[in-house]
Design brief:
70 residues, mainly beta, three-stranded antiparallel sheet, 3 strands, 11% helix
Length: 70
């Protein structure tokens, strides 16, 4: 199960009850330094989807950990 959460409270959207969220909240964060990016590109009749796994080391330093396309 995956939750795209902007806050720990968003876990309520996947069916966790308030007591479970309150208990888990001390262990969970929605901040990360690692992200997966998906980019859909269309040029003329050609389409391609690119994926990159990125690590944010600082505001001006982003490292590409993995890159692939479909």
């Amino acid at each position: 199960m995956m939750c795209r959460c902007g806050s720990v409270g968003d876990l309520n959207n996947i069916g966790l009850n308030v007591q479970a969220i309150t208990s888990l909240g001390q262990f969970l964060r929605v901040r990360s330094s690692t992200f997966e990016v998906q980019v859909d590109v269309e040029v003329g009749l050609s389409k391609r989807r690119y994926y990159a796994l990125l690590r944010r080391n600082s505001a001006r330093d982003v490292q590409i950990l993995n890159f692939r396309w479909e």
